[in-house]
Amino acid sequence: MTESLDEATVQGWRDAIPLKRGGKPEDIASACVFLGSDMSTYITGQTLSVDGGMRM
User: Fold this and answer.
1) Distance of CA 12 to the CA centre of its chain
2) How far, in Å, CA of 2 to CA of 52, rounded?
3) Which has the least CB within 10 A, 6, 13, 33, 56?
4) How many CB atoms lie within 10 A of CB 28?
5) Mind listing the pLDDT tens digit for each residue in 10-44?
6) Does 53 score more than 80 pLDDT?
7) How far is it, in rounded angstroms, from Cα 13 to Cα 36?
8) Do 35 and 48 form a contact (C-beta atoms < 8 A)?
9) Burial of residue 24, with CB atoms counted within 10 A of its CB: 0-12 exposed, 13-18 middle, 19 or more buried
10) d(CA 32, CA 25)
């Protein structure tokens, strides 16, 4: 999503994220695997933010 942006803009966003990095497809995939597994069977009606702590 940030491929067409200049590096200074992207780095500014990264610096604003508490984990200090952009997200990767694997981050979303891991959340999906968790939600599709038996480990999440007691979770209902929640919003799961996979955003590294970034708040807009």
Assistant:
1) 16
2) 16
3) 56
4) 11
5) 898 889 899 989 889 999 999 999 999 999 999 99
6) yes
7) 30
8) yes
9) exposed
10) 11
Can you read off the two tokens belonging to residue 22? 């952009």
Torsion of CA 29, 37, 43, 14, to 10 degrees: -20
Task: Map tokens 């999906």 to a residue.
Answer: 32
- Distance separating alpha carbons of residues 26 and 14, to the nearest angstrom: 17
Let me know: does 27 contact 50? Beta carbons within 8 Å: yes
Distances (CA, A) of 19 to 22, 24, 53: 8, 12, 7
Residue with tokens 């497809």: 25
Q: What residue type is 36 in one-letter code?
A: G
Task: Report the predicted TM-score, pTM, of the whole model to 2 decimal places.
Answer: 0.72
Residue 56 pLDDT greater than 70, yes or no: no
Torsion angle, CA of 30/26/53/18, rounded to 10 degrees?
130
